[in-house]
Specification:
365 residues, alpha+beta, 4-stranded antiparallel beta sheet, 12 helices, 11 strands, disordered N terminus
Length: 365
């Protein structure tokens, strides 16, 4: 992906967000590090398998599991948006492997011991596989330990992500399937993984409770507060699609705000962000209504192409504006204030998109 390397202690980092890496930011929702008992036979009572109850989580284990679940939700919802819209992502589409991987250093440093207790160690392990990707077709599974890459040992330890990016960079350009050696149930398997062409934006979880999102041209960040505000995955998809559209249309560049927004995102990825950096609108200019409407328009196409229902888009944006109006500092509507104009445009474009769907026409803006 076209995202530079960031330190491994940043919040919930994964291979999926590193520059030359071809790993798609999409995770499954299965809980990580929890062994699953084999299914019991329906035959004699003797065949019934019982599983010992898992010890209660410590407070820090629960907190880390919650963080993992939140990031997994982001990846899961973003996955179809990324894979269905490569054609619209223009120069932001790349060849991706179709899975994410982490080790214990992918988490904030204070969670290192906790991550180990959940099954993470020095080795990179698959944390999620994108449905329909080359990785899924090849048989990559969540929990696989990555041990070989194109015949070379997979890097381990604190620098594993950056070193893996270096190894992958020349391979993804060739577009040929990539040979991976994975360790599963103590046995090594060699798997050739076809690449998946998709939008290469990284999808990030921001460590803040304000109700906002940010897009700096290569990343989309949803704050923890905004994630909690969304009532359904569909609503979360509306937010991700809107910021993907801002990135595709180059709005951060047009606003001359790339470095400012990037600084906000970098700060919100820290385990302990500086609250002064995100005070007010954090120095980010308010989006003019024409740019915001253009992003709304493109987002509807991104959503429809990804299979999301767009009927409820206006209701979501209205609820967000009603509960967090432009007067709320550091809130979404403070940066996207033209709600009435936006809702009018969204209604018009929704009808156009649905008409194209019914007529079987290409969903192109």
């Amino acid at each position: 992906m076209s995202v530079p390397y960031l330190p491994a202690w940043q919040k919930l980092r994964s291979i999926a967000v590193l520059a030359p890496l071809a790993v798609l930011a999409a995770c499954a929702t299965q809980e990580t590090g929890v062994p699953v008992a084999p299914a019991a036979s329906s035959g004699s009572p003797a065949a019934v398998v019982t599983q010992a109850p898992r010890p209660a989580d410590t407070p820090q284990q629960k907190q880390l599991r919650d963080l993992i679940a939140q990031q997994d939700r982001l990846y899961r919802v973003a996955a179809p948006l990324l894979t269905s819209n490569a054609q619209l992502c223009r120069g932001n589409a790349r060849n991706l492997l179709g899975f994410t991987a982490k080790n214990k250093y992918s988490f904030p440093i204070e969670y290192a011991d906790t991550a180990r207790s959940l099954g993470y160690d020095e080795r990179l392990q698959v944390t999620g596989v994108l449905p329909g990707s080359g990785a899924e077709q090849a048989g990559i599974q969540r929990g696989d330990l990555l041990v070989m890459l194109a015949g070379k040992p997979m890097p381990q330890g604190t620098d594993a992500e950056r070193q893996a990016a270096v190894l992958l960079s020349p391979l993804v350009v060739k577009k040929a399937p990539i040979s991976l050696g994975v360790l599963r149930n103590g046995q090594q398997r060699n798997i050739n993984v076809p690449l998946t062409f998709a939008c290469a934006f990284s999808i990030e979880l921001g460590n803040a409770d304000n109700i906002n999102t940010y897009a700096d041209g290569r990343r989309v960040l949803i704050t923890r507060g905004m994630l909690k505000f969304t009532q359904t995955d569909e609503e979360l998809a509306y937010l991700i699609a809107k910021d993907m559209a801002h990135n595709i249309l180059g709005h951060a560049i047009r606003q001359r705000m790339v470095s400012t927004i990037a600084e906000v995102i970098d700060n919100l990825l820290l385990p302990h962000p500086d609250p002064t950096t995100t005070a007010g609108t954090a120095g980010i200019r308010v989006y003019p209504q024409d740019l915001d409407a253009a992003a709304d328009t493109l987002s509807l196409y991104l959503l429809a192409r990804a299979g999301y229902n767009i009927d409820n888009v206006p209701a979501f944006w209205k609820r967000l504006a009603d509960q967090y109006p432009a007067s709320v500092a550091n809130g979404y509507t403070a940066l996207h204030p033209s709600t009435a104009y936006r809702l009018s445009m969204i209604d018009k474009v929704t009808q156009i998109v649905k008409a194209k769907q019914e007529a079987g026409k290409p969903l192109m803006p």
